[in-house]
Amino acid sequence: MLCYNIHYGQGNDGVYDLERLARVIVAAKPDLVALQELDVMVERSGRVHQAQRLAELTGLAVRMGPTQHYQGGLFGNAVLTRMPIEDVQIHPLPYTPATESLTTYPRGAISVVVQCTNGRPLRFVSTHFQHNVPGDRVAEAEAINRLFGTDNVPTVLAGDMNSVPGSEPIEILGNRWNNAIDLAASPTAPAKKPTSRIDYIFYRGGGLKMVESRVVDESMASDHRPVLAVFKLAN
Questions:
Q1: Separation CA 80–CA 61 (nearest Å)
Q2: Quick one: pLDDT band at residue 81, thresholds 50, 70, 90?
Q3: What are the DSSP calls for the chain, one per residue?
Q4: Nearest CA among 10, 171, 17, 8 for reference residue 105
């Protein structure tokens, strides 16, 4: 499973290049991909339906979870999957509305339930926490726990949490989730010379066991590096 903030398709060279992003995704061979900062028909990225285009380029199915209208289109999270989809839900998360002196963005989570090869359901969630209001990130972590952290459905949560290890939002998530992080807690941003770990994959419930977790060494396609985790799900 892959978590990737794609910076609305723009690489560190300033070029919008979905083909380059698709190559990164395909090379990781994921069954599920959580995407953040995805544009759909937005002016800045050329009015491209990025969700549909990435699905075409990767051969995966896609479900979009928009969080706001932006420049004539939509902006938000998405999930790519090669597994049969059984259910999709989009949940708004708490956030502080923007003002003239504070730039914030609506936040949300898209939850996709897929059917595994053993016939069991797996819930996969893509989310993106607020970048500049610490209290929002705390509230968003608490909301994620209320939405997805109370049952025993095998669930993987992936996203840009804009929070470093040991911070309050990560500690709150840690009360309900296992953190699929490598021992070094390798940084993910900024992609060229990463110094901070802010992108994560968490898991809980129903016999999920982590096999591997690592940050993918990719410095150009986005301003974040992707995170890859491999799981086994008990029968």
A1: 5
A2: very high
A3: -EEEE-GGGB-TTS-B-HHHHHHHHHHH--SEEEEEEEEES-GGGTS-BHHHHHHHHHT-EEEEEEEEEETTEEEEEEEEESS-EEEEEEEEE--PPP-SS-----EEEEEEEEE-TTS-EEEEEEEE--SS-HHHHHHHHHHHHHHHSSS-S-EEEEEE----TTSHHHHHHHTT-EE---TT----BSSSS--B--EEEEEESTTEEEEEEEE----SSSSS--EEEEEEE--
A4: 8
- Residue-wise pLDDT tens digits, 84-114: 999 999 999 999 999 999 999 999 999 999 9
Q: What is the mean pLDDT of residues 123-138?
A: 98
Q: Residue 222 has which token pair? A: 């986005």
For 24, residues 6+ apart whose C-beta sits below 8 A from its C-beta are 4, 216, 218, 221, 226
Q: Look-up: residue for tokens 């395909």?
A: 26
